[in-house]
Amino acid sequence: MGDRWALLIMRELLLGARRFSDLKRDLPGISANVLKQRLDELEARGLLRKVRLPPPAARDAYQATDWGLEIEPVIQTLGRFAARSPGHDPTLPLSPVSLMISFRTMIDAAKAQGFDERIGFLIGEESFVVAVSGPLLDVVRGPATGVGATVAGTPEQIAAVVYGGAPAEGLAIGGDEALARRFLTLFTLPPKA
């Protein structure tokens, strides 16, 4: 896991299978050759496997194994550590999966007390459903159906509202706007070092 890009590739697989092109798009700066090499190495080590996506995609993809999914607490700890940096900027580019994992990492149990709702997120071509029940938060990649509200924007726009105090007016909110706005306040970054 110490090889360059390995942790970031595993992070991108925490919410389900991803195609090579998805990984390449969401990991800016990685070359196709290095990505292929890291995927092959992680597969050989048993941390991910190749799978075939169902139609209509019907394409090869990469999926974390059960063992590979055990890396999430490590990634969350590193995320909390990085957020403590005095130079941390919550508006820098991040992938949709990074944003969703940050929600699981930065949920504030006190703020989430009594919150029991489902919120949909529409980020480019991807959609997620975030279910919060008190301090517990689950994220599923998939259509934003059966939700009380939806939030659409780029990961950077959403992170700027959630972690940077930007106004929510830059986001497209559907459904129960008050519910969506409350959800956006349930997260707290750790204190700076």
Task: Tell me what you see in this structure.
This protein is of the alpha+beta class and 193 residues long. 39% of the residues lie in helices and 21% in strands. The protein contains nine helices and seven strands; from the N terminus they run αααββααααββββαβα. The strands form two sheets. It has a five-stranded mixed β-sheet with strand order 5-4-3-6-7, with helices on one face. A two-stranded antiparallel ribbon has the order 1-2. A hairpin with a 2-residue loop joins β4 and β5. The mean pLDDT is 95.
Draw up the topology in text.
Blueprint: H1 6-12, H2 20-26, H3 32-44, E1 48-52, E2 60-64, H4 66-69, H5 72-83, H6 96-106, H7 109-112, E3 116-123, E4 126-133, E5 136-141, E6 149-152, H8 155-164, E7 172-175, H9 177-183
Parallel strand pairs: 3-6
Antiparallel strand pairs: 1-2, 3-4, 4-5, 6-7
End-to-end Cα distance, whole Å, is: 26 Å
Largest β sheet strand count, sense and barrel closure: 5 strands, mixed
Characterize the overall form: globular
How are the strands of the largest sheet arranged? 5-4-3-6-7
Q: What is the radius of gyration computed over CA atoms, rounded to a whole number of angstroms?
A: 17 Å
* Weakly predicted, low-confidence segments: none
- Structural class by secondary-structure content: alpha+beta
Tell me what portion of residues adopts beta-strand conformation: 15-25%
Q: How many alpha or pi helices?
A: 9
List how many beta strands DSSP finds: 7
Order of helices and strands: HHHEEHHHHEEEEHEH
Overall pLDDT score: 95
The percent range for helix content is 25-40%
